[in-house]
Design a protein that fits this description.
alpha/beta; 38 helices; 26 strands
């Protein structure tokens, strides 16, 4: 197939060429005049399964012929002649072993690192070990590094490396994947040196970024019929630029650095690398522009020297669009619109970006046109339905059961799939409403059974038994073996998925996601013997990491021409349009991950990969993708309310073009941006909601028969300030939905404070000597423990009460001298027979003095209303006084009121008396009668936000009233609701 020669045989294909297609065409051209079996003798080694599938698909397009042997680099060790090399240990097993080693180390030296970092340290240390094995770096090399820092950091690092030294011993018979791969490659190279194969062996598509792979490529290139074919090789780069790539510390992030390193290792010059075929890139002039833009620094002098030599810059960039969106949302929408346009044209379009958040936004935007893109990355397993259910179940063991966690699991689409799913959802809804209204925030078996009592539902008893068995009292702070943890976890998950009917696992393990989750659990179970003992929190973290490392394909058939690729997939695929998105620093290229072990200099000294390696690979991906026939380059100017930094490669291209006005660079750049702005204008049109008339300030006028005939005194303030709230609550029957997790809010604090003071006053009214701060706080501690399950809130509320306790005791003694506490939480009401209306009240406390007159007290945890507010709006105590004198409270008959007082127990305790002298009960009642009479008029509307206390006050029904489309200066829109 190849002419014999002593020089290593290396070929390249330029950026912009469909690499798999050019590879196949080159093979067919070289075997055109040879017998059919000659092609079958070729062994073709590629680096990914996706590349192998694409090559096979191209051969399958015809004509019929014998195919070459297509294999992966990782398949080299599967031959019988390498069977003596032990199989690799699963990476999960190695990480679990490292967890145990790190745990033991931290037990001996707890100051090395926090225990919460054990799993992250294990992952990081495993990655370092893989890299050392792959690059052939032993721990001795690390020990011999020149380290001048004596701060103790290096000693800590050596402590961690010391626990994994045995994994590098020559006789170690449990190699990990990287160790075995390097052994396989070294053994295969020895065999080839002793007995070189005579059939062609070709390595195609690899950049040689890892040490073991580069050794294999160098060996294959030296074989009598061996060859290496490099993807995206820059034939436009001059020799002096290749020479400048010698220093890895300065050049690792260059897209062509790996090819220079390979050529040096193979003993050839980059000028010896020949084209594989006659395939020309889609636009050679664009390749030259990109090559010049990405040259290693310093570049300004090179741009000034070589920039004028560029040809037809406007033509080269004619099919390149630069979209600079104001936000990631606009970027995603513009991309989605372009993909939809390509689908309508019948073209193949691919979105390429490492930013998974952006791809999800684009996928969501495409959904409005019922387009599901073919996402090569699939969906992370931990975000799939089985993954979410399994993670939620794992959390049951680490946290006390909350109402939120319970309902999250009950509403999960895989819960209770064994039967009666409809009844399960109905009972779940009823339980949710109960928990929202009555709590408790932390359900127990007793509270769940109490809820079920008296319910006339044949399923409720069995269903609650299932709830109690699966969800309550599952939190466990102890440490048990990993195998036991897994068994308990999966058993419970299957029971939850099955439901209250019989045995089974429901649909938990069905479909692709369920099967992948089951495989993940099987692998974890197989390695559990080295996992040691874990507490529930550590197990949940471990389980999440395992699921997050896996992906599952969407079972729905995607659109065949709309694709989402990672940068790796883009190397082996072809499309009519490529969209390179997320071109911002930190996204593409991604920021190097912090290395807790070695800095750049030490890595370079040890022969390990530099952090910029990934940036260099991304740069190579960018250089190949931007050479496609039609390209979009997109970025967002802002992200999360912060300015972004343009990607270094795009920035270089813009700077180069801006400096070449005479060659048309400035005009070409403006045309690129202009095409992007056109699509952003389309996005603006898509987002434009059109003209919708603003809602008017509502003032509904319902029929008199529908209007409320009973209100409490606390609602009268609302009737005066915001009549629309009374309309929504009492006529429409709408109630604000309580939060799922009840919070220690002002309402609960007021309720608890009322109970504390009531109990205290009851016990001290007959024995004034007991009216002490100690007794008050004792009562508070007891009642808080019974009613407030939040320790922080209990402590805070108790401290607040303690601050005002002395003031309260002092004034309480005076109140009890003045009158005797007689009734607590006393109910009263007064009617208006002529209007058919009743006013109700519940007085916090009623005291009677020796003259038989009444003292009304109302406790406030906040600031009590002023006398002026009471006269105009907050008429609670004034109306309670009117009720007391007209019809009385409880068993009391009508009683004259001596005074009515708000007792404020806020940060500044105070007493505020109701202005009974200025507003006597008779006048208050007459004015109230007139108010109710007005609302019995069919033409009287319940106006929204009639007189809010503050302009920024928020009401429960503001959204219903569409407040914001109008304000309180607008005229009310009286609407007859009887029509």
């Amino acid at each position: 197939m190849f002419e014999s020669g002593d020089s290593p045989r290396v070929f390249g294909l330029p950026p912009g060429v469909d690499f798999p297609r050019a590879l196949v065409e080159g093979l067919l051209a070289r075997h055109a005049d040879q017998p059919p079996e000659a092609l079958a003798r070729v062994r073709l080694i590629v680096n990914t399964k996706r590349m192998a599938r694409r090559i096979r698909d191209l051969f399958d397009q015809g004509p019929a012929l014998l195919l070459p042997q297509i294999s992966l680099v990782t398949d080299l060790g599967e031959g019988w002649d390498l069977g003596q090399i032990p199989d690799p240990v699963p990476s999960l097993r190695r990480r679990l072993e490292l967890v145990q080693l790190i745990t033991a180390l931290l037990d001996r030296q707890p100051d090395l690192a926090p225990r919460s970092a054990i799993f992250d340290l294990a992952d990081s240390l495993a990655a370092l070990m893989d890299e050392m094995h792959g690059e052939g770096v032993s721990p001795d090399v690390i020990d011999d590094l020149d380290v001048t820092d004596q701060s103790g950091h290096w000693a800590r690092i050596k402590s961690f490396l010391g626990i994994v030294r045995h994994y590098f011993d020559a006789g170690f018979d449990q190699p990990d994947v990287e160790t075995r791969q390097r052994r396989v490659i070294q053994r295969r190279i020895e065999q080839w040196q002793n007995d070189p194969p005579r059939h062609p062996i070709i390595i195609a598509g690899s950049t040689g970024s890892r040490g073991a792979t580069q050794l294999l490529m160098q060996a294959v290139a030296r074989l009598p019929q061996g060859a290496v074919i490099l993807p995206g090789f820059d034939f436009d780069m001059p020799d002096h630029v290749w020479t400048s790539l010698e220093n890895a510390m300065l050049s690792e992030d260059h897209p062509q650095y790996r090819f220079h390193r390979f050529a040096v290792g193979a003993g050839i010059a980059t000028s010896d690398i020949r084209p594989w075929g006659g395939d020309a890139p889609a636009n050679p002039n664009r390749n030259a522009i990109v090559s010049l833009a990405l040259r290693p620094a310093p570049v300004t002098d090179q741009w000034l020297r070589d920039g004028p030599k560029l040809f037809d810059i406007p033509g080269a960039l004619e099919k390149v669009t630069l979209l600079e969106a104001p936000s990631t949302r606009h970027e995603a929408l513009a991309i989605a619109m372009r993909l939809r346009h390509a689908a309508n044209e019948g073209k193949t379009a691919a979105l390429i970006t490492p930013d998974r958040m952006l791809t999800r936004q684009v996928t969501a935007a495409l959904d409005r046109w019922s387009i599901l893109p073919d996402d090569s990355a699939g969906e992370p397993l931990h975000l799939s339905p089985p993954g979410r259910l399994l993670r939620h179940v794992a959390d049951l063991f680490r946290h006390r059961l909350t109402a939120e966690a319970l309902l999250t699991l009950l509403k999960h689409p895989l819960t209770h799939r064994g039967g009666d799913r409809g009844d399960h959802l109905r009972l779940t809804r009823e339980l949710e409403l109960h928990l929202r209204r009555h709590g408790p925030p932390y359900p127990t078996a007793a509270s769940l059974r109490l809820w079920a009592e008296g319910r006339k539902d044949k399923m409720v008893t069995r269903w609650v038994d299932w709830l109690c068995a699966c969800f309550t009292d599952r939190d466990d702070s102890g440490t048990i073996s990993l195998a036991t943890r897994i068994e308990a976890h999966i058993t419970l998950a299957e029971k939850i998925a099955q439901g209250s009917n019989g045995e089974g696992s429901g649909t938990l393990w069905q479909k692709d996601a369920g099967q992948e989750a089951q495989r993940a659990i099987s692998e974890l179970s197989a390695e559990a013997d080295v996992g040691g003992s874990l507490n529930a929190a550590d197990y949940a973290s471990l389980f999440h990491k395992i699921l997050a490392a896996r992906e599952v394909r969407n079972p729905i058939e995607p659109h065949p021409n709309i694709l989402i690729w990672g940068t790796l997939e883009a190397r082996v695929q072809g499309a009519d349009l490529l969209i390179l998105a997320g071109l911002n620093e930190g996204s593409w290229p991604e920021a190097p991950k912090p290395d807790p072990w070695l800095n750049r200099t030490l890595r370079h000294q040890a022969g390990l990969l530099l952090p910029e390696r990934r940036i260099g690979l991304s740069a190579h991906d960018f250089q190949q993708a931007v050479a496609a026939p039609e390209v979009w380059l997109t970025r967002s100017v802002r992200s999360d309310d912060a300015e972004t930094v343009v990607s270094r490669w795009l920035n270089r291209m813009q700077n180069l073009l801006s400096g070449l006005p005479d060659q048309g660079g400035v005009a070409a750049l403006e045309d690129m941006r202009s095409r992007g702005r056109d699509w952003l204008q389309r996005v603006a049109q898509l987002e434009e909601p059109g003209y919708v008339p603003s809602a008017k300030r509502p003032a509904p006028c319902p029929p008199v028969a529908a209007r409320p005939t009973q209100l409490s005194v606390t609602e009268i303030k609302r009737l005066i300030r915001d009549p629309y709230a009374i309309y929504a609550r009492h006529i429409l029957g709408l109630r604000r939905l309580d939060p799922l997790m009840k919070q220690p809010d002002a309402l609960l604090r007021g309720t608890v404070l009322h109970e504390v003071l009531e109990c205290f006053v009851r016990e001290t009214c007959d024995d004034p000597a007991r009216c002490t701060k100690a007794l008050l706080l004792e009562k508070a501690v007891t009642i808080l423990a019974e009613n407030v399950p939040w320790a922080e809130a209990r402590a805070l509320w108790l401290s607040r009460l303690e601050r005002v306790a002395d003031w309260f005791i002092e004034h309480e003694i005076g109140r009890q001298v003045l009158a005797t506490p007689t009734a607590f939480e006393a109910k009263g009401k007064a009617g208006m027979p002529d209007l058919g209306f009743t006013l109700t009240a519940k007085a916090d406390r009623l005291d009677l003095d020796r003259y038989g007159t009444l003292h009304i007290y109302d406790y406030k945890t906040g600031q009590p209303p002023t006398k002026k507010e009471q006269k105009a709006f907050d008429k609670q105590l004034l109306l309670e006084a009117a009720i007391a004198e007209r019809e009385g409270f409880g068993d009391m008959g009508p009683t004259k009121v001596a005074r009515a007082v708000f007792i404020g127990l806020g940060s500044t305790p105070t007493e505020v008396e109701a202005p009974l002298e200025d507003e006597p009960p008779a006048r208050v009642w007459a004015e109230f009668h007139a108010l109710i009479s007005a609302y019995m008029d069919p033409s009287k509307g319940y106006i929204a936000r009639r007189a809010p206390r503050n302009s920024d006050d928020q009401g429960d029904y503001d959204q219903l009233a569409r407040f914001g489309e109008w304000d309180i200066t607008d005229m009310a829109d009286l609407t007859d609701m009887d029509e």
